[in-house]
Request: fold
Amino acid sequence: QSALTQPRSVSGSPGQSVPISCTGTSSDVGDYNFVSWYQQHPGKAPKLIIYDVNYRPSGVPDRFSGSKSGNTASLTISGLQAEDEADYYCCSYAGRYTWVFGGGTKLTVL
Amino acid sequence: EVQLVESGGGLVEPGGSLRLSCAAAGFTFSGFWMHWVRQDPRKGLVWVSRINSDGSVTSYADSVKGRFTVSRDNVKNTLYLQLSSLRVEDSALYYCARAHRSSWTTFDNWGQGTLVSVSS
Reply:
């Protein structure tokens, strides 16, 4: 149950697109299409923004999109806005009813 | 509106015990799997435990297996986590989270968390 690997920080200017990667193994990300992404603002609870690799819950802007290739999943935020500045966490199902999160990525909007 | 409210956190010495609660409202609690997830500044979010809708099946992260026990009371609409043999590294903000209705591997609603501090 080793944590998924995410970059510690990324940044972008308003209007730009920013990708955030999430690398796991063939036992988690690579084996299941069950990757989800969570946005967390300071002092707040995490909020679901992507599930099952590329599905958005209702109410989440279509600027947020997800994808996966092999053992790496990605979250892309297009048309970056100031309110997107937050921490982002990926999570994958890891089999036998266990889950593993990434270490989190801090997004800074310049 | 879905509401999840955790309670029961506090300061405890290493080796001690604590019981966390998560009161649920705004949805049919007995129809959903539930999870506990913890967060500390060093490791970020870490999945801890999961329980199925009727409480008959549970699973745990290796780091807490044998020390933590998850349970639920579907009459009281409350989820529990019994923490025993606590270690300093168990110090964290503990969240309860609901599983998504159609995507059972997803956490679609989270509480605000209850803080556990393990220190002598």
